[in-house]
Write a structure and sequence with these properties.
Length: 448
């Protein structure tokens, strides 16, 4: 077999440290290598394989679309594109809205900003985003992200992006011990920033409503308060649902948890849109924004926007979420997982905080001591002990994901209940092992 290390540049890693088995197949929440080793996927790879691996209905939809028609550009119609747009508007409740298809999440965010600016008549209007957010790795989406890993590569101000402090209740930027107050303060900071920049110069506020790569899960009052603040100031609210959408947070889209009080003007999608079977992203615009664009020329688009094969995969994915009742399943199992993790927190001093649990998404924040809340490693570095834990999980046949001092749990929505509870049992064992090792290391260094 050809070794990838000799010919491929890999994303988000030090090149000469990349070392991974060649994956040759998968089914449900598991995937496997040529040598027979198999892993339970506790992160849906990049929080994207919501339907598990090789979902038969999606695979069949791709196959049958490929036999009929692989590709036409946007200059021509394609049945799966129309069908998917209709389904998305239906599940979002965006009657009269429109869908613009992209290739993934980064370009969905870039396009959402373009549309918000164009609809406002502010081609270079300000966009407010937040620190510790992730909206992608293309240049404009790096500018939108509040991500310390990529911040030096781009001048956010030059892209007319302004960042505010996040609704990070566990380490509240306003030092509030109460999550609701922290959520209020964080939403007020957005309102204040709009006012400081001048509401007539601000096109949009772009935020992740719930789950995010940087591990922030906002307090419940944050999103509705943002909705009010943006509506009062006539600024569009864009929900980046790339990670939080398609059941990950227990609803089709995370903002739906707030009902009518949470409806954004635009939202961006990718990942779960096809369950990662093929690359696809989307911007969903409500009727008002769509109306503003109706008679306008859209000077944008990429060759493969709305690729029929990807859209066919999207249609099959949505039908699978519906027919297998996966959104409700995620809500139910997510609550169970959250309760399990909270119980683990009581037994392990390494766990400072557990967030999420609205669906199959939870963040475990690791600390050296829960009373001082000192992070296990300074963000965004990863402690070598956590690397060891991931390796031990890997050797035991479970793939866990971590970022900085956070463990991110986001298994496929189809994961079997026993597999989930076994994986959580293994995680507790590995965390206890790490806790013991760290205590021994501290003991040794004090004894010296
Ligand atoms: C919230 C969010 N937005 C945008 C993106 C970027 O999506 P993509 O990698 O498909 O460009 C991601 C990817 O992880 C994400 O989590």
């Amino acid at each position: 077999m050809i070794d990838e290390r000799d010919c491929v540049l890999h994303s988000w890693c030090v090149q000469d440290q990349w070392q991974a088995p060649m994956i040759v197949g998968g089914r449900g929440a598991r995937f496997w290598a040529a040598d027979g080793r198999e892993w339970l996927d506790m992160s849906s790879l990049a929080e994207c394989s919501h339907l598990g691996h090789q979902h038969p209905r999606v695979v069949e939809a791709i196959r049958s679309q490929a036999e009929r028609l692989c590709f036409v550009t946007n200059a021509w119609g394609a049945q799966p594109r129309a069908e998917l747009a209709n389904l998305l508007l239906e599940v979002a409740g965006f009657e009269g809205g429109r869908v613009f298809f992209t290739l993934g999440g980064s370009d969905a965010n870039e396009h959402a900003v373009k549309f918000a600016r164009q609809a406002h008549g502010l081609p270079q209007g300000w966009v407010i985003a937040r620190d510790r957010s992730y909206h992608g790795a293309s240049y404009a989406s790096m500018a939108l992200s509040g991500d310390s890993r990529t911040a030096a590569q781009v001048d956010a101000q030059a892209f007319r992006v302004s960042h505010v402090a996040p609704p990070y209740a566990y380490r509240c930027p306003w030092h509030s011990p109460d999550p609701t107050t922290c959520g209020e303060r964080a939403a007020a900071a957005v309102a204040e920033r709009i006012d400081a920049l001048g509401m007539h110069d601000v096109a949009a506020v772009l935020m992740e409503p719930n789950a995010g790569t940087n591990g922030i899960v906002a307090p419940d009052n944050y999103w509705p308060a943002l909705r009010v603040a943006t509506q009062e100031r006539r600024v569009y609210l864009i929900a980046d649902e790339v990670m939080s959408g398609f059941g990950r947070c227990g609803e089709w889209f995370a903002w739906q948890r707030h009902g009518q009080d949470g409806v954004p003007d635009l939202m961006t999608l990718a990942k779960g849109l096809t369950g990662a079977h093929l690359p696809l992203g989307a911007v969903v615009l409500n009727q008002t924004v769509a109306e503003h664009l109706r008679s306008k020329m859209l000077l944008t688009g990429l060759t493969y926007c709305g690729h029929p094969l990807s859209c066919a995969a999207g249609v099959a994915a949505i039908r699978s979420y519906q027919d297998e009742d996966l959104i409700a399943r995620s809500r139910h199992l997510g609550q169970q997982m959250y309760a399990h993790l909270r119980a683990m927190q009581n037994r392990l001093s390494l766990i400072g905080d557990v967030r999420g649990g609205h669906g199959l998404f939870a963040v475990i924040e690791l600390v050296t001591d829960p009373s001082t809340r000192v992070p296990l490693s300074a963000w965004p570095d990863m402690h070598p002990g956590l690397r060891r834990l991931l390796q031990r999980g890997f050797e035991a046949g479970v793939s866990f994901a971590a970022r900085g001092n956070l463990l991110i749990l986001a298994p496929p929505l189809v994961i079997e209940e026993t597999a989930l509870s076994d994986a959580l049992g293994l995680l507790e064992k590995l965390l206890l092992e790490l806790e013991t090792e760290l205590a021994e290391e501290t003991h040794r260094s004090h004894a010296r």
